[in-house]
Amino acid sequence: MIWERAIPDPRVVPLKTHNTSRCEHAMVRVRSDMVVPDRCQNHGYPHSNGTPCTSMDGVLPADMDIIDVVRKRIKDDDQLGFSSEAKIPSLLLVCKESCKVASKRYQRAFPYEWSFAETYFDYERDTLLLSNKQIQFAILPEDDKSHLMARSEACKIRNLALQFRPNPRASARDDRSVKTEDLAEILELFCNVENLTIVVENHLPSGHANGLSSSRNDNEPVLFEAIEINEALLMFSLERRFSDYHGGLLQENVNRLKLRFCMKCLNRKRLQDIANGFVWNLPTFQWKILTTAAFQARFERLQKDYELRTGNTCHRIHETYKLTLDTSQLFLHP
Fold this sequence. Notes:
Blueprint lengths: L1 H4 L6 E3 L1 E4 L47 H9 L4 E4 L7 H4 L1 H7 L4 E3 L9 E3 L5 E4 L1 H7 L12 H4 L4 E4 L9 H18 L5 E8 L18 E5 L3 H8 L18 H4 L4 H13 L8 E9 H18 L11 E2 L11
């Protein structure tokens, strides 16, 4: 069928998080991409003094049948809803036939308690992108938070991208140890991830919010090779035509070595969790840069022009950007 051949390529989907209202007098279910003020704080509730309500005084009769459910929101802080500025796959909007085909792949994803699923996502092919702030929320102690995402939803994710930030104040060894522990916490939640991407640099143009600044397809976020972008562009420039000492070498991104993990420690933690009844995968790792499809196309065009002009073939020292773990070479027993 023609619509099946028109299915778009896998996407990188960034999430936006929204705190959902926990007021007892607010709606029980709200759209996660809308700011819904508490009715009491918004002076929409009788006898309101303009402050958030945390008591049962003066509850509206219409709220009595659901107040026990709503009251739970007071106990669980940091209730989140999710949305995304990733473009809705166009096949969902063309016609009934295309929508039927696309709906087999793209589902409304990432519902959470008290919020609706707002984001279309292909669990098998799309990559979920988490910001450093979302990562920090995900690794908080269990007593301090509910999970960043419902486990029933997180376990469906097959491809995950994480924007870790190197800690300049910590030694390389300490930072590596801490990040390994953090990564284990994340993989415990996203337990079925098969492909994990570590974003070494956010090279999105300024003005992008969560990876997008417009609805154009070429501004969709993509994962690009973990190289020194500025050095490569300088090498491609015409000014370097007669002084090209790089000879086509694409230098590795400096953050690549700063964002390392202890794989043996990670697998040891995994086997300990398995022994305690928490099973999670050890995925294939890769290190990439986050940029746009437009920049990727421009870079590839400049690279091709450079190779034709100089006769040099662009290359990297070795494939340090990808790692497939052989668990037989690690710890076989907890």
